[in-house]
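User: Some background: our group keeps a shared notebook of sequences we're curious about, and every so often someone picks one and asks for a predicted structure to add to the entry. Today it's my turn. The entry only has the sequence so far, pasted here. Could you supply the structure so I can complete it?
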Amino acid sequence: MFVASATAVWLAVHMRSRSVATSPAGMLRRLPPEGATVLFVDFETLRHTGVLKLLGSSNAAEDPDYQAFVRSTGFDYQNDLDLAAISFSDEGEFFVVKGRFDWQKLRTYTQAQGGACEGRLCRMQGSAPTRRISFFPLESNLMALAVSTDSSAALRLAEGPAGMVHPLDAPHDPVWLSISAESLKTPDPLPPGARFFTAALASADRILLSLGPEGQQLEVRLLVTCRTSADAAALAGQLQHATSLVKEMMEHEHQKPDAKDLSGVLTAGLFQQSGRQVLGHWPLPITFLESLAGGQP
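Assistant: Of course. Here's the predicted structure to add to the notebook entry:
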């Protein structure tokens, strides 16, 4: 009787621990926090709502190298990936991903690409000498993966430090991005229309972008936390002014906002201040997603 009770308690604790480890909060806690920009994607929800299928027609999914990877490993993100928590920083890119993995096929693929596996850790060379890939299973359905100059960087994900974004602060939307203000200080790679917005946001304490449903379409939402209410009021005005500048720039070039491209999204933005926070909303038409994926309206 005692043995049966002890076994039941152990199983309950084990299952709870595993559930916590594979939950969004547990995944986020593993990410390196230092100055990182964090992306979270709920692929399972996107799959159920049809958004993932819409974007699945993109060139990346049809790339011959990607198709060869799918054939070799049996892993296709459209069907096998459920959750992904990713951090980006100068130290590299760190991934904690939940899904269905054939670990033996992944090990075989690594070795076929000139890499090696020692124990649970696998390493292989990426597309550049500074991009060294390492990964290992945290659970049977949970992978730790890193792309860094350090060929064993994935091991940093074995523990669970407090991540940059506290799980309680994370939005409930299926896609969100917590942006490091430092990353906005080098806006050169961004489209001209977007640079107005990044310049306005560069002095913010915290920037959170998310994507979620709004009625019959999707919506991009912005939440910016400023140091003071006065800063928030100024930022809301700057963002609204930036929207007007994009419209004026297009009018000067005799163009009109198009729902199929970024201009239509940016010029539809609305902003409001609430205390130290600024809230923003951009409707995201299905035609824009179709255009982004290379489909037809």
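Suggested note for the entry: Residues 229-252 form the longest helix (24 residues). The two ends are 66 Å apart (CA to CA).
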